[in-house]
């Protein structure tokens, strides 16, 4: 995977409603919808130092940000819940994973000294923060609580 074209990257998203494959730019504005059935698509993408503002700060949806690293075992416990949250909150939340090893400037800016660290950001402002792993059900409850606040 090359980081040099990260800001122009598209994600291939399979629609959970009709199975159509859709290409969704990581920095797209608004809410991605399936080109075939027009339902909201789950949005799970990645960001790094070079495109964090485009993908996260300037996002028009609230962002669930997952600060993780490949060597972090608790981060793996979180992973199924992160994937599920992208589906559960399709249309309401953009889910973005940031590998702190590959994005030291973002990790520094968000003071991600302990991972996994989850943030919910809206218009670049922090609405919620959770440090440490959660199971999928607890993660969903936490997201619902932050979104309702
Ligand atoms: Zn569809």
Provide a compact summary of the structure.
The chain is an alpha/beta fold and 149 residues long. 28% of the residues lie in helices and 26% in strands.
CATH fourth-tier homologous superfamily: Glutaredoxin
Structural class: alpha/beta
Unreliably modeled segments: 1-7
Using only C-alpha atoms, the radius of gyration works out to 14 Å
Query: Helix tally?
Result: 4
- Using the coordinates shown, work out and report the CATH topology: Glutaredoxin
CATH architecture: 3-Layer(aba) Sandwich
Number of domains: 1
Question: Any key phrases for this structure?
Answer:
149 residues; binds zinc ion; globular; alpha/beta; five-stranded mixed sheet; Glutaredoxin; 28% helix
Written account of the structure:
With 149 residues, the protein is an alpha/beta fold. Helix 2 crosses helix 4 (136-148). The longest helix has 16 residues, at 73-88. Residues 1-7 have low confidence and may be disordered. It is built from four helices and seven strands, in the order E-E-E-H-E-H-E-H-E-E-H. Helices cover 28% and strands 26% of the residues. It has one domain (42-148): Glutaredoxin (3-Layer(aba) Sandwich). Strands 3-5-4-6-7 form a five-stranded mixed beta sheet. It is globular. Zinc ion is lined by residues 15, 17-18, 20, 34, 36-37, 39.
Give the arrangement of secondary structure elements.
Blueprint: E1 10-14, E2 21-25, E3 44-46, H1 52-57, E4 63-68, H2 73-88, E5 94-99, H3 104-109, E6 117-122, E7 125-131, H4 136-148
Parallel strand pairs: 3-5, 4-5
Antiparallel strand pairs: 1-2, 4-6, 6-7
This protein binds zinc ion.
């Amino acid at each position: 995977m090359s980081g040099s074209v990260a800001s122009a990257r598209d994600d291939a998203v399979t629609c959970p409603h009709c199975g159509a494959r859709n290409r969704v730019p990581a920095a797209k504005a608004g809410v991605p919808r399936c080109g075939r059935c027009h339902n909201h698509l789950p949005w799970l993408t990645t960001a790094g130092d070079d495109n964090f503002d485009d993908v996260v700060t300037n996002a028009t949806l609230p962002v669930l940000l997952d600060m993780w690293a490949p060597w972090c075992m608790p981060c793996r416990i979180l992973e199924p819940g992160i994937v599920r949250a992208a589906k559960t909150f399709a249309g309401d939340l953009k889910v973005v994973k940031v590998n702190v090893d590959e994005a030291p400037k973002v990790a520094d800016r968000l003071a991600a000294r302990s991972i996994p660290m989850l943030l919910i950001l809206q218009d670049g402002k922090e609405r919620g923060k959770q440090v440490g792993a959660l199971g999928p059900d607890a993660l969903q409850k936490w997201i619902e609580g932050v979104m309702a606040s």
